[in-house]
Structures are given as structure tokens and as C-alpha cells.
Amino acid sequence: MFRRRAAPAATVTVRLDGEAVAAAAGDSVAAVLLAAGADYRRHGVGGAARAPFCMIGNCHDCLVEVDGVANRQGCLVTVAEGMRIRRMRGKPVLAT
Amino acid sequence: MSDARFIVIGGGVVGAAISYGLARLGHPVTMIDGADDAFRASRANFGLVWVQSKGLGKPDYAAWSRRSAALYEDFRAELEDESGVDCAYHRPGGVTLALSDDELEEQVAILGQIRGEAPAGEFEFEVVERAQLDNMLPGLGPEVVGATYSAHDGETNSLFLLHALHGAFQRRGGAYVQGHHVTGIEAAAGGGYAVSTADGTVHTGDRVVVAAGLGNQELAARVGLEVPVRPVQGQVIVTERADPLLSMPTLNVKQTREGTFMLGASQAEVDYDITTDAAVLKRIAARNLRAFPFLSDLRVVRSWAGLRVMTPDGFPIYDQSPSHPGIFIATGHSGVTTAAAHAYVLADYFSKGEIGAELAGLSSARFHVQA
Ligand SMILES: Cc1cc2nc3c(=O)[nH]c(=O)nc-3n(C[C@H](O)[C@H](O)[C@H](O)COP(=O)(O)OP(=O)(O)OC[C@H]3O[C@@H](n4cnc5c(N)ncnc54)[C@H](O)[C@@H]3O)c2cc1C
Questions:
Q1: Ligand 1, atom 52, residue with closest C-alpha
Q2: What is the pLDDT of residues A28-55, one digit of tens each?
Q3: Domains along chain A with CATH numbers
Q4: Less CB within 10 Å around the terminal CB: N or C of chain B?
């Protein structure tokens, strides 16, 4: 659905749901997920498929788990080498 | 006379439950409510339908709370049927956690006294040891020594409840007049009462119910009733959603059906102030993190302050004006818990024109200065 307009000058490797994925340095986490294809996340109430809408920090539809922390706004987090990103399939499960 | 026309002043959970109950009995009812900037405990509360700890030294009130809780499942089902709104009520029982032996001892003493004041077998609770508690609630902190549990307790979503009551009331033909501040109640020329609002509109009815929350003191005084209510502020914290963990509410922490955790609640005499305060919120968070340390993984998404409608002894007031028969007052704390009794029992008393003896101990006469 989304295509990069130019090849990235520099790349970093992140883990998306455990898989190694190449991202452009400076990408937001949301951009990495969009570039990786459909099924961004499932809403925590009702399970509807959702994806980022605004990409500027307002809509909260880009929520994603980053390095073990759930519900981060993917559009506001910049990728880093080795970052562990997980798509959210519903609500976070708390460790008790 | 079920054709008596009622004017209900106040559209919070107390006024709306009574209005719905009256409309359900076939009365024509107009519910007059203040503007959106009014103080509304009904939109700021914790949503517990709570029985344990209610009515210490006032068995009438303890019994009234139990009666309402016992009616709640039918109430919920009927409201959902009539309004299409599911108010998320359930009654898995509830616990009050103790963070020290002293706390537990004090709680057990209070509940024991309430049980002693109730007719045999009507109020039961259990003292739950820590080991047993771990099977009921996950993730308890090391300081939790035990809890009291009562099967009478439950919880609802109080915003959905209010929405359901308004919807069901209007579906029964009730009229809701919003944004009008009542300024006068007078005997009408042809019998009945004239209720006037700030913009000069006059509504006439055979009977009037004053259920205006913190507005009650002033309104009730106009019809010779002493109703000393004052605001007691409470602040509440709401976290982001998480997968279901708590299957039952505790007095200060509950998880909503949508997954958020609600953390309550402070008590402060700050007059008409609904600003939140970081120091207070910090205390609420700190106390509840001792109970459930896993809450530290969650972000806070909202917090607010609301004003409880409090009487001097903490118990509600139900009364009829001696000088203006047919004018009733209903007010007090825990209007969510008592909503089912308000809709089904209190509305019936108002319909019959006389408040039943079960509520005699809750009349305003208890605040009269003894000569
Ligand atoms: C933080 C907090 C937590 C709580 N937790 C619980 C709980 O867990 N369980 C429980 O049972 N209870 C709880 N309560 C108490 C409960 O919220 C109240 O008892 C209940 O909401 C009171 O409802 P009410 O309709 O009397 O008042 P309100 O909700 O205050 O409504 C009064 C209404 O009257 C209207 N009004 C006032 N004056 C006039 C006038 N002159 N003319 C026209 N309209 C007027 C206002 O516009 C308002 O809409 C809590 C309260 C707070 C603040």
C-alpha cells in the first residue's frame, strides 16, 4: 500500500514481531509498520483493524509496543538499531 | 393517583432514577436539570454499587443499600431493554483490601457491627486471609495482609447508567428540560405547585421532587425543609486499558469492562473546587500501587475531581415537606448504589404520596436542633 519514494541513505535493523526488518534511519516506528504492509494493529475494545491516521501525534491510532512498553504512539518514536517492535492485537497483558 | 403530574428538579442519577420510576408507574413527569457547567457527582463518581461498610449505626440505611443492590440486576436488565444501553453492571462481590493488620482489624470491627445491627442473616461478609485472597485477585503487593469480602457488592459504568436512565425515562414519555436553573417553588393558584426557572418559564405540577444534588439545601429551604448538604471533593485517576485482570472491584481500584483501571478516591473539604491537584493524585496512586504494584506499568490517561453531595452524618435524606405536602426531597451520597431502590421503591412512595416507614430514620428531622 505504501511505497518509499527514495532508497534510504542509511538503514537500521529492527525486530518487528520477532522478524528482522530493515528501516531507514530517521523513520518513525509507524512508518516502518506501514512500509511492512497491512494489519497495523487491532483495537483493544472490539478488535477492529486500525492504522495511523494523522502521523503527527494526535489520533492515537498508531499505538504499538516498543521495547516492551505497550500503547506507544508509533508516529512519535524514531527507530533505533535493534529496537523490538510488536504489533498490538488488543489490549496489553500486564505481568503480575 | 397515577395521573398526578410530577416536576422533578435535578437530572443527576438521583433525579433521573426517581423520574424514570415515576414515568414507569404512568405519571406524567417533567425533569428539570441545570446547565452543562453544573456540579454533577453523577458524572464524576467511581461507579461502585457498594453495600459493605454502608450504614454503620444506621441500620435503615444499611438495609436500604442492600435492598437496592438486590434489585440491581433486574434494574439493569430493564434499563437495557428500554434504552438500549448496557450499563455494564455486574455483581461478582467486592473486597476492601487491608494494608496492615490494624486496617484489617478496624474493617472487620465495622462490618461486624453492621452485621450485628442487621436482622439475622441479612448482611454477611467474609474475612479473607492473604493466601485465599491471592486466588481471588492477581498481582497483590506484599503489604496486603487480607481483605473483607461481601457478595452484596458490585459495580457499574456510571455514565452509561445515567445515559440509560435518561433514555428509558424519555422513552416512557417523560419530558427532559435541560439548562434551566430552578429559582422558585410556590403553591399554584388552582392547586398543585408552580416551579419557576431563571429565564422566567413556569412549570406546574401536582407534586414536586427536589433532587438537585448540591442545589438541594437552597431549594428545600423554600419549602420548610432543612437539608444540610455540602460538597466533599473526591479525585479519581484512570489508566490506559489492559487485558482483564480484576474480576471483581475493590473499594479503591477497579477495572472497567473496557480495560481501564480506575483509582480512587480522595476526600477533601475544599468547598466548590473541582480542580485536580498533583499532590493528591500522587497520594492516590501511591496507596493503590502498594495494593497492586503492576499498575506502575500503566500510563494515566485521565484524572478529575468531583463533588460528593454530603450530609452531616453521611446518610441520605428522604422527606416530605410538612408545609407543602406533595413536595419531596431525595438527596445524599452513594446515589449510584441506591439508584435501583430510588427507581422502584422511592418512586412508588412518592406516587402513593407517603414515604414508607423503612425510611423513617432518614428524614431530615434528625438534623433539627433539639430544644
Ligand atoms: C469521586 C466520587 C466518587 C463516588 N463514588 C461513588 C460510588 O462508587 N458509588 C456510589 O453509589 N456513589 C458514588 N458517589 C456519589 C454519587 O456520585 C452521588 O451520590 C450521586 O451522583 C448524586 O446524584 P445527584 O443526582 O443527587 O447529584 P448530581 O449528580 O450532583 O446532580 C444534581 C443535578 O441537579 C441539577 N441542579 C442543581 N441545582 C438545580 C436547580 N436549582 N435547578 C435545576 N437543576 C439543578 C444539576 O444541574 C445537576 O445535574 C461518588 C461521588 C464522587 C464525587
A1: B45
A2: 999 999 998 878 999 988 899 999 999 9
A3: 11-87 (3.10.20.740)
A4: C
Centroid of ligand 1 to alpha carbon of B366 (angstroms): 22
Residue pair B237/A87 in contact (Cβ under 8 Å)? The answer is: no
Does residue B148's CB lie within 6 angstroms of at least one atom of ligand 1?
no
| ipTM for the predicted complex | 0.84
Q: What are the two backbone dihedrals, phi and then psi, of residue B350, each rounded to the nearest 5 degrees?
A: -65, -35
Q: Smallest Cα–Cα separation from B110: which of B125, B100, B128, B129?
A: B125
Q: What cell numbers appear for B256 in the block?
A: 472497567
CB distance B242–A45 less than 8 Å? no
Ligand 1 atom with least separation from CA of B333: 19
Q: What pTM does this model have?
A: 0.95
More confident position, B174 or B368 = B174
What's the mean pLDDT in B321-329? 97
Hey, is the C-beta of A90 within 8 angstroms of any chain B C-beta? yes
Chain B residues close to A68, C-beta within 8 Å: none
* Rounded Cα distance, B169 and B83, in Å: 8
- Phi and psi at B16, nearest 5°, equal -70, -40
What domains, with CATH codes, occur in chain B?
Answer: 2-83+158-228+314-367 (3.50.50.60), 94-150 (no CATH), 230-310 (3.30.9.10)
B258 inside 8 A of chain A by CB? yes
Atom of ligand 1 nearest to the CA of B236: 1
Instruction: Tell me how far the alpha carbon of residue B185 lies from the centroid of ligand 1, in angstroms.
Output: 21
